[in-house]
Amino acid sequence: MKRAFAIAFVAVLLSGMMASAQTPPPAPKPGPEQKNLSYFVGTWTVTGDLKPGAMGPGGKTTGSDHIEWMPGGFFLVSHTQESGPMGKDTALAVYGYDPDKKVYTFDEFNSVGEMVHATGTFDGKVWTWSADLNMGGKAIKSHFILTEESPTSYSYKFEMSEDGTNFATVVDGTGKKSASAGTAKKKK
User: What Cα–Cα distance (Å) separates residue 119 from each residue in 10, 95, 108, 164?
Assistant: First the structure.
């Protein structure tokens, strides 16, 4: 009886060791949705025209975005510096794709204490990001619409609405990728 128990114990132990020695499943790989985000990789100069209204007196805005892949190729990390009529601002943002909800994601944290979570769609040329914001205790719907004009330029507009139906443009402008963008990290 003891011998049968010992043989059974060794067999269970060996089968456990063999199972743990098996090759683990391969790491997940980015899909075509992540590859769409490659458009943004590089350093961009961004200019805009802020309309007078709830966001301030209006005027010109300028900034730069440095965007690169996070290791693994699933997320982009963006560092932004901008200035305009309301002063200077910096931001850190992460772009990604949520395969369960089938939407792009954008999460930003900036130097004026704002946090933005937006979800987006892409139709092959136009990116549309939507977010619910809180401004002065009011719920605001917003859209950031970016149109790829070429591999190195885009136009954009940012719209807001209190009723979720009637949107007003708050800022519009352009982005241009710098010639040194080829030195940015490329996704593997």
Answer: 54, 10, 12, 16
**Nearest-angstrom CA–CA distance, 72 and 74:** 6
**Segment (H or E) for 38:** none
Q: Strands (DSSP E) along 72-124, which ranges?
A: 76-84, 87-98, 103-110, 115-122
Cβ proximity of 50 and 60 under 8 Å: yes
Q: Please give the backbone phi and psi of residue 8, each rounded to the nearest 5 degrees, phi first.
A: -65, -40
Tens-digit pLDDT profile for residues 68-112:
999 999 999 999 999 998 889 999 999 999 999 999 999 999 999
Phi, psi (5° rounding) for residue 2?
-65, -40
**pTM for the full model?**
0.80
Bridge-partner residues for 177, per DSSP?
44
